[in-house]
Specification:
The protein is mostly helical. The chain has a domain of 57 residues. It is 68% helix and 0% strand. It has 4 helices and no strands. It is elongated, with a radius of gyration of 18 Å. The model has no long low-confidence stretch (mean pLDDT 76).
């Protein structure tokens, strides 16, 4: 018996949710930098100066960047509705 994935199942895929959360964190951080010149990631993980960034902050930036890249590549698969099979 073949099981088909519904759009709802794809929408709540844990990988997709994780990628979306990391991408939203990155977008909010860039918004704070653009509007208020405030870097939330550096404020949380250290590295207050513009030229200084802690290793942990760099890890967060790398994860956000990879999440955005993965989301850009994988999102078309999740956005499409279920495939219709001929009757």
């Amino acid at each position: 018996m073949e099981t088909r994935t519904t759009t709802l199942d794809r929408r709540f895929n844990p990988l997709l949710v994780t990628l979306l959360i990391l991408t939203i964190i990155g977008a909010l951080n860039w918004g704070l930098i653009g509007f208020f010149n405030f870097n939330l990631v550096d404020a949380i993980f250290g590295g207050g100066a513009r030229e200084e960034t802690t290793g942990l902050s760099r890890v967060v930036y790398a994860l956000v960047g990879l999440a955005a890249l993965a989301l850009a590549v994988l999102s078309p698969r999740f956005v499409r509705g279920p495939t219709r099979q001929p009757v």
